[in-house]
C-alpha cells in the first residue's frame, strides 16, 4: 500500500478512537418554576383584626395611618388600617406554593396610646399616654410565610406569620394579576409593641392583620414557563 494511503488510514483510526465532545449550550435554561418573576406594581390593604382593635381600644390605643414622611394621620380616620404601595419584589412557584417577597414603601401604621381606655392596663400605664409607636417598611416573605417590619427607631422584627397560598389559586395568567388575601397572626416578637405601649394586646398567636394584596407581574415574562403552571 502506498505511504500516503497508510497515513490516511492511520488518521481515520485515531479520529474514531477519540470520543466526540458535545458543545455546551450557550445559555442553559433554568428548570421550569425556578424563575423569579418581578412585580411591576401593586398595593396591599392592611387592616387590624377586629379582636385586636377591640383590645387596643380597651387599653386606650388607637390605630391610624402613617404617611411616607412619618406623619401620623388623624385618629380613627384609617379605620384601623392603611394602604401600602408595593415598591419592589418578585414571586416564584415553590413546590406549588407562592414564593418570593414583596417590599413596601415608607408608609405604615401608627399605634397611639391616648391613656383614655377603659381597661386596667390603660389606667396602670396612664403615664405613657399620648405616645405613638410607628411601624413601617413592611416586607412579606412569601416563601417563609412571614411579615417583617421596622419600628421608628430602626429595629427590624418579625411581626406575624401566615399560611402560604397555592400559586395557581392566587395568580391569573391572562391578566398577570396576583390577588392574595392573608390572615396574619402575631409572633412572639410582636410583644415588643406591648413593651413600647405598656399593653398586653400582642401576646399569643392571635389574629393580627388581614392583608388584601393586588399586584401585576412583569409583562415580558412567560408566566406559565417561569412559574411552571403548565
Could you explain how this protein is built, in words?
With 230 residues, the protein is α+β, with helices and mostly antiparallel strands. 19% of the residues lie in helices and 40% in strands. It has six helices and eleven strands. It has helices at 3-17, 50-58, 120-124, 167-170, 191-197, 223-226; strands spanning 37-48, 61-66, 81-94, 97-104, 108-113, 131-141, 146-151, 156-161, 171-172, 177-186, 207-217. An eight-stranded antiparallel β-barrel has the order 1-3-4-6-7-8-10-11. Strand 7 and strand 8 (156-161) form a beta hairpin. The protein is elongated and about 55 Å long. The termini are far apart.
Helicity range: 10-25%
User: What's the arrangement of strands in the largest beta sheet?
Assistant: 1-3-4-6-7-8-10-11
The fraction of residues assigned to DSSP E strands is: 35-45%
State the helix count: 6
Order of helices and strands: HEHEEEEHEEEHEEHEH
Low-confidence stretches: 6-33, 121-129
Basic shape: elongated
Structural class: alpha+beta
What composes the largest sheet? 8 strands, antiparallel, barrel
Spatial extent as radius of gyration: 28 Å
What is the tally of beta strands? 11
End-to-end C-alpha gap: 63 Å
Amino acid at each position: 500500500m502506498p505511504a500516503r494511503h497508510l497515513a490516511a488510514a492511520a488518521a481515520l483510526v485515531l479520529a474514531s478512537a477519540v470520543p466526540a465532545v458535545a458543545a455546551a449550550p450557550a445559555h442553559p435554561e433554568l428548570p421550569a418554576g425556578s424563575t423569579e418573576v418581578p412585580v411591576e406594581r401593586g398595593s396591599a390593604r392592611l387592616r387590624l383584626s377586629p379582636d385586636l382593635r377591640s383590645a387596643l381600644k380597651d387599653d386606650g390605643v388607637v390605630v391610624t395611618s402613617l404617611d411616607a414622611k412619618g406623619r401620623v394621620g388623624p385618629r380613627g380616620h384609617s379605620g384601623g388600617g392603611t394602604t401600602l404601595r408595593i415598591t419592589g419584589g418578585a414571586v416564584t412557584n415553590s413546590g406549588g406554593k407562592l414564593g418570593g417577597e414583596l417590599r413596601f414603601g415608607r408608609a405604615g401604621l401608627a399605634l397611639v396610646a391616648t391613656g383614655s381606655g377603659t381597661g386596667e392596663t390603660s389606667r396602670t400605664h396612664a403615664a405613657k399616654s399620648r405616645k405613638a409607636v410607628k411601624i413601617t417598611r413592611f416586607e412579606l416573605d412569601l416563601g417563609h410565610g412571614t411579615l417583617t417590619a421596622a419600628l421608628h427607631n430602626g429595629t427590624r422584627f418579625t411581626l406575624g406569620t401566615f399560611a402560604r397560598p397555592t400559586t395557581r389559586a392566587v395568580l391569573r395568567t391572562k391578566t398577570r394579576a396576583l390577588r392574595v388575601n392573608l390572615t396574619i397572626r402575631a409572633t412572639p416578637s410582636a410583644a415588643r409593641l406591648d413593651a413600647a405601649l405598656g399593653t398586653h394586646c400582642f401576646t399569643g398567636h392571635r389574629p393580627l392583620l388581614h392583608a388584601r394584596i393586588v399586584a401585576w407581574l412583569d409583562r415580558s415574562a412567560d408566566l406559565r414557563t417561569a412559574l411552571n403552571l403548565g
